[in-house]
């Protein structure tokens, strides 16, 4: 199944300029050809091309499915962006394939990357959604300071992964007890500082572990995403 991305306008869906160019110029789609288009919010629309234009290709909506391809839980990943952006890009691509709803980049005491540009990551998220046949693009938040993030309220439990000393339980045990919609915080290569960990606990966030092995930031994050996925199957 080949997916495109566009926005609903009345009884039509208009593809973005990049998607229109790919459909008309690269794939040589013509008027009357049937396309499947997601709106990025969970909607899938199917219908024939009624406007064959390489900048604003449009389809007539014949079929519409809500919540298409969504996983039955919300996974909110709060992560300190890696110094090497290739690692973060790889992580987001794989996380979308497994199932993730929101990404919050956080600025920590040990963060090596202090500037965050979302444009390329947004394209990677869209590509991952289309590749894994999902209808909803995960929310990508602006970079936020650690203390500001832990002060935010959320309707689901928040956990912080930490390698140092402190009270921690396995993430899988927490998810069996509290359900599968969660926020998990993963720190930079130098980990969260002891003060950050204590501040998180004081804010009502629960300390968790992903095992005895020391993992890179992106590996730990993907392990957490996969743990959430597995928890829904148990």
Automatic annotation (TrEMBL):
From the Swiss-Prot or TrEMBL record, what is one GO molecular function term?
A: rRNA (uridine-N3-)-methyltransferase activity
UniProt superkingdom = Bacteria
What EC class does the entry list? transferase
Ranges where the Ribosomal RNA small subunit methyltransferase E methyltransferase domain occurs: 71-227
BP GO annotations = rRNA base methylation
Quote the EC number.
Answer: 2.1.1.193
Q: Which GO terms describe its cellular component?
A: cytoplasm
| Principal location listed in the UniProt entry | cytoplasm
- Limits of the Ribosomal RNA small subunit methyltransferase E PUA-like domain: 15-61
Instruction: Give the Pfam families listed for this entry.
Output: Methyltrans_RNA (PF04452), PUA_4 (PF20260)
Keywords for this entry? Cytoplasm, Methyltransferase, rRNA processing, S-adenosyl-L-methionine, Transferase
* Key word RNA-binding present: no
Provide the coiled-coil residue spans: none
Catalysed reaction, written as an equation? uridine(1498) in 16S rRNA + S-adenosyl-L-methionine = N(3)-methyluridine(1498) in 16S rRNA + S-adenosyl-L-homocysteine + H(+)
Any idea where this protein resides? Cytoplasm
PANTHER family per record: 16S RRNA (URACIL(1498)-N(3))-METHYLTRANSFERASE, RIBOSOMAL RNA SMALL SUBUNIT METHYLTRANSFERASE E
NCBIfam families reported for this sequence: RsmE family RNA methyltransferase (TIGR00046)
The task this protein performs is described as:
Specifically methylates the N3 position of the uracil ring of uridine 1498 (m3U1498) in 16S rRNA. Acts on the fully assembled 30S ribosomal subunit.
The family line of this record is: Belongs to the RNA methyltransferase RsmE family.
Q: What is this protein called?
A: Ribosomal RNA small subunit methyltransferase E
